[in-house]
UniProtKB/TrEMBL annotation:
This is G-protein coupled receptors family 3 profile domain-containing protein. It holds the Pfam family 7tm_3. Keywords: Cell membrane, G-protein coupled receptor, Glycoprotein, Membrane, Receptor, Transducer, Transmembrane, Transmembrane helix. The keyword Kinase does not apply. It is a multi-pass membrane protein. The keyword Glycoprotein applies. GO terms for cellular component: plasma membrane. Belongs to the G-protein coupled receptor 3 family.
Length: 218
């Protein structure tokens, strides 16, 4: 897809809303594990799903306000320049098409990336604090692994892009973004859903074997 002004305005919305919904939910689940693990009162304090949903909605509203400010600033920026990243003069028409495939890097990107890493770092802090908590089918370990992978891969990508941005061509950056997406988003979905599916399958198998054993004994 060729870069355009509309795409460059919508891309941060898709990225950041997806990020806060996915990893915000993971951080909140780690928070619930920590609260339940540290409760030592006679009446155990349980964080309800409705409470987590309210916290997540508050995080989404905050991100929406941030993205609205980003979009307004970008619209002002359009009066003097453009959002599509045009590199050096291409040598061929094919190179020209490739050169217009990326959006222009902005200072807002650094603020956004720092915010993402702070949220992930907070999640890792919660994971360390609740390291002794026991959860069903080891859910906490898989949640921690998903946050840790996102933190390591994204921070490495941001550092390399900051230092070597001018040396990369748009095709290389596009490939790096694709690899990063697979190493973070795809792996995170697998870590969240596959253990639950395997646990349910294992429970079903145990139930079936138990019923078969009862029939044999009968």
């Amino acid at each position: 897809m060729q870069a355009s002004t509309l795409r460059c305005l919508l891309e941060p919305w898709c990225r950041e809303l997806g990020f806060i919904i996915c990893y915000g939910a993971i951080v909140l689940k780690l928070y619930r594990h920590l609260v339940e693990f540290r409760t030592r009162k006679a009446h155990r304090w349980v964080v309800r799903d409705l409470d987590l949903l309210r916290y997540l909605c508050a995080m989404i509203v905050a991100v929406l306000c941030y993205l609205a400010a980003f979009t307004a600033t970008s619209l002002d920026f359009l009066q003097y320049s453009e959002l599509v990243w045009q590199m050096d003069q291409p040598q061929s028409m094919d190179a020209k098409q490739v050169a217009s495939n990326m959006c222009r890097p902005l200072r807002w990107d650094y603020v956004t990336e720092a915010g993402e890493l702070l949220i992930l770092g907070f999640g890792l802090q919660l994971a360390i604090a609740s390291r002794n908590a026991n959860t069903q089918f080891r859910e906490r370990q898989f949640l921690v692994a998903s946050i840790l992978i996102e933190f390591l891969v994204s921070s490495t990508f941001y550092i390399l892009r900051f230092w070597y941005l001018e040396e990369f061509n748009p095709s290389t950056l596009f490939l790096a973004l694709f690899v990063r997406s697979q190493l973070t988003n795809t792996v995170t979905l697998g870590l969240i859903f596959l253990p639950k599916l395997w646990y349910q399958h294992k429970q079903l198998m145990c139930h079936s074997l138990g019923a078969l054993k009862n029939q044999v004994n009968f």
